[in-house]
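User: Sequence in, structure out. Go.
Assistant: Echoing your sequence, followed by the structure tokens.
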Amino acid sequence: MAQPLVSDALWTIIEPHIPVKKRRTRNPGRKPVPDRAVLAGILFVLRSGIPWEMLPQEMGCGCGMTCWRRLRDWKAAGVWDTVHHVLLNQLRRVDAIDFQRALVDSGTVRAVGGGQHTGPSPVDRRKPGSKHHILTDGQGVPIVAKTTAANRHDVTELLNLVNEVPAISGKRGAPRYRFAELYADRAYDCEADRQALRQIGTKPMIPKRRTENGSGLGKIRWAVERTISWLHQFRRLRIRYERRIDIHEAFLTIGCILICHRILERSLC
């Protein structure tokens, strides 16, 4: 039997953070589609990659525009960032976050409709594309994810990713948001960034350009590449169809949420 798109465990985490919209007492109109059903429709579009207008009515999640509007409104309300942060706190509570190492990498996707944060892709014959920049812990837990144009160099986003790491609590004591070491490939070679990382107490493990291969860092960095592969298994992230960056980044954050929830469930087993 197929697993439900929105499990009870996942809905228990998300439901408290969804804003309650009050209905008018006079002429309230039709009763709105339940939030859980709408979330199922959003996840179906994320996983399958189908257009919004082709969302099956048999699922009971309303029309595609209803799901699109809720996704937009919940993104504006900060629901997805909040849920992601809550899951990171729960992962730390069960010792599932490795603060010894941070891993950084990026993946390029085609943007068929163009839009915000797109540019000529250097790996796809200059067709419009976007780039997903990901920072994970040493085990591949997605901590920060953001989108830029495909022609933006990786090194320009390194410090932005590090500075956007949230304060992760879940245990007694001060929250943690710094990693002991940071691993990246040669695309992040920049001496100024190395100095900035050392100043905040993070040891940069970044090989220099025009040096021989065989540093052995790939034995550690594979976890972030696996996480990017997990994200791009969601077909709505493998190819970008949304012209609006807020909708695409909402999908990107939801992908991180699903991965974090999967890792949390395995840690609790």
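User: And one key feature?
Assistant: The first helix runs from residue 8 to 14.
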